[in-house]
Amino acid sequence: MSGVLIDTCVWSLALRSKTPKELSVATQLTQLIDDNQAKIIGPIRQELLSGYSDKNSFDRLRQKLKYFPNEEIHDADYESAAEYSNFCRSKGVQGSHIDFLICAVACRFKFKIFTTDKDFKHYAKHLPISLLEKG
């Protein structure tokens, strides 16, 4: 495995980590980080940071996320994401632009995707993506 692209929902759960489900996700994310497998893209970083209106909290999270360089997004990834969106929509599966961009980048890098978003299970029926099993 060359890496695991971590979806926004996983980062968010791990940052909260109060319930058993959140703690389980946080533990799995911590292991991926320890194994140098956790990957991020700019749009996910933006989504995470957009959730913090308190400047101190924003700055703390921004500092923590600096540990993870953004994986490069190419023009072809945006085109693949649009193709994926169109194809999935033709199969009756709707999704967000960011979700399909995650799928496109993950495919190019051959990354698995770590998410708790059930929409990705629907995408995986039609797209060449691999989801990381939750531990």
Q: Can you walk through the features of this model?
A:
The chain has 135 residues and is of the alpha/beta class. It has a single domain (4-131), classed as 5'-nuclease (Rossmann fold), CATH 3.40.50.1010. Helices cover 59% and strands 7% of the residues. The longest helix has 16 residues, at 75-90. It starts with a strand and ends with a strand. The relative contact order is 0.19.
List keywords for this structure.
single chain; Rossmann fold; alpha/beta; four-stranded parallel sheet; 59% helix; 135 residues; globular
Mean pLDDT: 95
When the domains are counted, the total is 1
Largest sheet: 4 strands, parallel
Helix content: 55-70%
Helix run count: 7
Which structural category fits the helices and strands?
alpha/beta
Run of helices and strands: EHHEHHHHEHE
The CATH class turns out to be: Alpha Beta
Distance between the termini: 16 Å
Quickly describe the structure.
The chain is of the alpha/beta class and 135 residues long. The protein has seven helices and four strands, in the order βααβααααβαβ.
Set down the secondary structure blueprint:
Blueprint: E1 4-6, H1 8-16, H2 20-34, E2 38-39, H3 42-50, H4 55-65, H5 75-90, H6 97-109, E3 112-114, H7 119-124, E4 130-131
Parallel strand pairs: 1-2, 1-3, 3-4
